[in-house]
Amino acid sequence: MGTGPGCCHAGVMGIARFATASLIFLLCAGGVSRADPLFDPTTGLRMSAYRAPVPPTVPGGQVVTDPARVARLADSGALLIDVMGAAGYRIRDDGTWITAESHQTLPGAIWLPEIGRGRQEPAIAAYMHQALQMCSEGRKDRPIVIFCLSDCWMSWNAVQHVAAAGYSRVFWFPGGTDMWQLMDMPTRTAVPLPFGARHCATRN
């Protein structure tokens, strides 16, 4: 597919769902335009409308589309990080999360809610760094697989946050739990890692 104006015009006429400027750019060029108001002009991170078609690549990460490969990475010691958001969350005094909805995640995955926002709150940024340090046992070269649902920009953002924190082997599984369940692979109920957790508990 070409990337010139003709491609964009044809894409708009042929596919009504890609109505905004950012999605037209994704359809025609497979990238992200920093001129788009949905993205931070400095970082390029997605700032809103997190459920929408994502690009085929992500800065700072390697793309993994095959659930079986994700399972092999996990079996070889990779961390699985679920970054599903938790709108309207609260944090109890003991650091545990109160979330409006539960969801299913990959076996062994660590749920770190909200770290995929384009602009992390300071407390969430500190939570992410502490969790990564603890769960990786201080190994910046430990493989980390980031995922959410399909068409989830939070996972795209989170890959870049984790890479910016110095982790060198970051993988992005854009199909997320939707693709995992489509392949009839097992899941478990996700429980967020508490603030200030002293152990990287990943299983119920």
Automatic annotation (TrEMBL):
Residues 139-189 form the Rhodanese domain. InterPro entries: PQQ_CXXCW, Rhodanese-like_dom, Rhodanese-like_dom_sf. SUPFAM superfamilies: Rhodanese/Cell cycle control phosphatase (SSF52821). This is Rhodanese-like domain-containing protein. It comes from Paracoccus maritimus.
